[in-house]
Amino acid sequence: MSDKSYVWRFTRSGGFDQVRIDGPEDLVHLAELDPKLWAALACPTQGLVFDQATLDALDGDHDGRIRIPEVLAAIDFVRAALRDLHMLFGPDRLPLAALRDDTETGRRLAAAAQQLLKALALPANTALSLEHVADRSAIFPPGHANGDGLITVADLRVAGQDDLLQVIIDAQGSRLDRSGDPGVGTEEVAAFFARVEQQLAWWQAQPVHPAIDLARAWALTEPLLAKIDDYFARCRLAAFDARAAVLLDAREDQLSALATTLIAEDSPQARDLPLAHIDVAAILPLSDALNPAWSEAVLQLAEVVWRPLLGPIEVLSATDWKSVRGVVSAYGDWLQQQTQPSLDLAAADLARYAEGDRRLALEQAIAADLAVADAADSTLELLTLLHYQRYLVQFLHNFVSFRDFYERRRAALFQAGRLYIDRRSCDLCVEVGHLDSYTALAAHSRTYLVYCRCTRAGAKDKIIVAAVSAGDAGQIMLGRHAVFYDQQGCDWDATIIKLDENPISVREAFWTPYRRMGNMVAEQMQKMAKAKEAGVQAQAMQDVTALGKGSAPPAFDVGRFAGIFAAIGLALGAIGTALASVATGFLSLHFWQMPLAVLAILGLISGPSMVLAWFKLRARNLGPILEGNGWAINSQARINIVFGTTLTQLATLPPGADRTLVDPYAAPRRADLWWWAALLVAAGGGVFFWLWRRHA
C-alpha cells in the first residue's frame, strides 16, 4: 500500500490518473506505490523500440517479460550504486565520484570502473558513458579471461589445443563468448569426451572374422536379407503342404502381366517374383535358375561371402543360410548399437584425443576463466548501471505511466514508427508478433486499425498495425500501398493486408448515411443501365436474326408503348405530388422555423450515426492494441477524440503558402453558364418568396 506520508503527484491523461516521476524522491518511494496505480503490470522484452541491453537487464529471470518486482529490483540496484539519484535525470556520463563508497555494490562498481578505464586506456578521472563501452571486444578482448566460463580458439591459455577446441565446437556447437567469439564451456567439453569414450568403446566392440571383410559382407547382404528370408520361408511352407508350392511360386497372373509389357530384368514386377522356383528341399541354386532381377547380386554375395565361409558350394541350403546370416548379422547388430550420431573422426584420432592430459588442459583453462568471474561480473554490472542511468527513467515513463505516449514529446517505446497513407500520417504504429492471436485482442480497442506487411531490401519482412484516428476512411482499402518509416528513419514498403473498421471521426459519421444512400442509388442506376443495355443488345440480335432469315421484324406496338408512357406519367405525377406536399408543408412554416426544420431533418438522418460514433470514439482503448503483443495493461488508456487527432495528422498546406485556384486541367466552362445559373437562382428565390408570402 502507498505510504500516506509521501505525497504523490498525478496527471489525468487517457482517462486515468498517471503518477508523475520527476525526481529522486519518486524513485525512492516507488515501491510503496499501489500496483493498481501502475499503468502496466508486465511487458515483453522483444518488439519494442528501446535499448535492448536495458530491457535484457531489467528482465531479471530472463523469461522475456518485465514485471513490477524486476523494475523495483533495478531501482534498488541503482540506489545501492549511486550517491545521488539525480544522475538518472541529468547527464549521460557517470563520474566515478558518483559511486557510493558506503555500500558493497558501490565499492565493487568503483573497482570495476577503475579496471575498465585501464583497459580502455582512459584517464582515471574520466566520466564513463555508453559510448565508451559500445565496443564489447575492447572490454573483453579475445584471448583473455572474462569470467563467463567459456574458452575460444583465440584464447592464449589453450595454446596447442586449438585443433581439439575447433573439433569440439564442430561436434557440440558453441556459445557466444563475452569477447564475441564462439566458445565452449564445461558442458560441451564433458559431452564431447563422453561421446569419444562411447565411440571408442563401440569401435573396440566391432566384430571381425578372419575369412571375410564383415563391413563389405554386410553391405552386400543387407539389401538381400529380406528376399532370401522370404525364399526359404516359402520353401518351408511348401514342404508343410504341397499345394502351397504352386501358390507361393510365380503366379500365372504375374507372368501374364509381364508378358504384355516391355520386360526389363530389374523391373519392379520382376523383382516381386521369388528368388527362384520354390523347392520343398529348401535349396537356393547359385546358377541361371535364379530370378534374373536378383541373380547378379546373389552371385556376387556367394562369391564374396558364402564361398569363403562355406567352401566351393553351388547351392545354398537353409542350414547354410542360417550359418552365414548369423556371422554377417553380427556386424549389422553392432552398427545398431550406436546410440547417437558418430563423430566424424577416425579411430586413431579418437584415441589420440582421449589419451594424455588434453581434456585436463581444457578443464583447467575453463577454471582459470571462471577465476575472474567476480571481476567480470562487476564490469557487467557497471555496464548495466550505465544503461540504467540513460534509459531507466524513460522506461518508467512507458511502464509506470504512459507519459511519453500522452505528452507526445517523444515516441513511446511501443511506437514502431510512422505510416504515411491516403494524405495522412499515423503515429500509433505497433509491430505485430503473431497476426492471428494479435487481431483477436486488438479488435476490442474499437479503433480503426490498418494492418500492413512491410518489406525492405535486405531486411526481414514484418507486420505493423496503424491506428487511424482522424479524418475518414477515404481510399483506405485492402491491397493499397503505403510507406512506413521506422524510428531509425528507414523506409519500408507497406501493403494493407487487413482492416479492422471502426468510426474514425464524428464528421465521417455525419456524412456516412448520405454516402450510403448515394452509393445505393448509384448502384441501382448502374444495374438498371446494365439491364437496359442487355435488353437493347438482345432485341438487336433478335432483329438481325430475323432479317437474316428473311422475316420482317415485329411491328411497332403502339398500345404497349402508350401504356408504358402512361405508367411513367403516373409515377412522375405521384412523385411530383409528394414533393409538392413537402414543399407546401415546408412553406407553411414561419421563416425562422425553416432552418430548424432543415436541421431536424439532418439530425434524423445523421443523428443516430453520429451518436453511435461518438460513443465508440470515446471508448477507443490503447490496452488491446498492446496486449496483443503480450503487455499486461493495468489502466483504461483511452484514445479520445481530441487526443486521437494528434496521433493522425491530415495533409494541410503550409502557413502562408501561395495557392493558385485556377486548374488548367479542369473541365471547360463557359462564362454564359454562370449568368444562366445566377438567373435561375434569382428566379427560384423570387418564386420561393412569392409562395411564402402567399401562404403566410
Could you outline the blueprint of secondary structure elements for this entry?
Layout: E1 10-13, E2 16-19, H1 24-28, E3 40-44, H2 52-58, E4 65-67, H3 68-81, H4 104-119, H5 136-139, E5 151-152, H6 162-172, E6 175-176, E7 182-184, H7 186-204, H8 214-221, H9 225-240, H10 243-248, H11 252-259, H12 268-271, E8 283-285, H13 292-310, E9 315-317, H14 318-336, H15 347-354, H16 358-370, H17 373-396, H18 403-407, E10 417-420, E11 424-426, E12 429-432, H19 435-442, E13 448-455, E14 462-468, E15 481-486, E16 491-500, H20 506-548, H21 558-587, H22 593-618, H23 623-627, E17 632-633, H24 641-647, E18 648-650, H25 671-695
Antiparallel strand pairs: 1-2, 3-4, 3-17, 5-7, 6-7, 8-9, 10-11, 10-15, 11-18, 12-14, 13-14, 13-16, 15-16
What coarse outline follows from CA principal-axis ratios? flat
Helix proportion of residues, in percent?
40-55%
Tell me about the largest β-sheet: 8 strands, antiparallel
User: Stretches where pLDDT falls below 50 for ≥5 residues?
Assistant: none
Whole-number total of structural domains: 4
**Averaged pLDDT, please?**
83
Q: What distance lies between the first and last C-alpha atoms, to the nearest angstrom?
A: 74 Å
Q: What integer value in Å does the Rg equal?
A: 44 Å
Strand content: 5-15%
- Strand line-up of the largest beta sheet: 12-14-13-16-15-10-11-18
Class from helix and strand fractions: alpha+beta
DSSP helix count?
25
Give the beta-strand count: 18
